[in-house]
Amino acid sequence: MDAAAAYSKAGQPEAAKALINDVTTAVKPYQEMSYSYGSDLRDKAIILETLLLLGEKTKGFDLLKEISAALSNQNMWMSTQTTAWCLKAASAFAGSEKRGELSYSFQFDGKEINAKTGLSFAQSNLPVEGAKSTGLNFTNRSNGSLFVRVISEGTPARDTEGDVENGLKLSVSYLDLSGNPIDPSMITQTTSFKARVVVGNPGLKGHYKNVALTQIFPSGWEINNLRLDDVEPMISSSIPIYQDIRDDRVLTYFDLNVNQNKTFEVTLTASYVGTYFLPSVSCEAMYDQTVFARKKGMEVNVMRDEIE
């Protein structure tokens, strides 16, 4: 398909079409964790772009429907590479459509709304009171294709999911600065301590590349960025490929060989008295959704020093 696209862009559409005459648009399922970061859906998006270059919109429409369904499926995991290619191909198809008046109607929360506009884009705000399930039925009354996107906004519910390990081993512990275990649910104000995470590759699926560890901390704890104090080597941590230290979280990226464990430590200070929620710690292969682990969150308290 890449060669056909190249011929088309070089002004030789006949040669391009000859290359794809007997080529199927089916792609066997696969997912690559590194190098090309490819997937079967990513490849279908590339095929769709090639078909558009050759004016084969009818042949590409089935691919568009498959890509659109994947993009709309909240339960389907897609890598950034696959997502980008799918959006690029879908937008190219939409851009090739003849522009005209948008005419549509939708039913929401028992009400039917009809709308028309001469613009290429229209937006409707649909407020929802409280947490409830409701349906949205959309009807396209335009002459061409119409693409609908539903964006949901709100306050996320508290993390109630339990521990999970799938192709990764994950342990989380909290220690004082001498390395002794402490209870993170009850910490005295001004106490400095460490959050230690150990990630292991049990060897079930070979070498893991591009593994991401996400640690989000409650607002009552402050992250001590030891890079600013020239004492970072004192921390008994493995060396990551990259680590992003932010106000409320630490994002760590690394590779894991078969049967290898890596340890990452973050130094914290219990700064503000109160009750907070410590979110779950999660770790995953960025380009393989089947490799992930999570340790559930918990309620934590920062207590006032009784000496005061």
Give keywords.
six-stranded antiparallel sheet, alpha+beta, globular, 308 residues, single chain, 3 domains, four-stranded antiparallel sheet, Immunoglobulin-like
- Kindly provide the radius of gyration, computed on alpha-carbon positions and rounded to a whole number of angstroms: 26 Å
CATH topology of the largest domain: Immunoglobulin-like
Shape: globular
CATH class of the largest domain: Mainly Beta
**CATH superfamily of the largest domain, called what?**
Alpha-macroglobulin, receptor-binding domain
Determine the strand fraction and express it as a percent band.
25-35%
Task: Report on the biggest sheet.
Answer: 6 strands, antiparallel
Count of the separate structural domains: 3
- From the 3D coordinates, which CATH architecture of the largest domain would you assign? Sandwich
**What string gives the helices and strands in order?**
HHHHHEEEEEEEEEEEEEEEE
The share of residues in helices is 10-25%
Mean pLDDT: 88
Task: Quickly give the structural class.
Answer: alpha+beta
Distance between the termini: 72 Å
Low-confidence stretches: none
The strand order across the widest sheet is 4-15-14-8-11-10
Number of DSSP E strands: 16
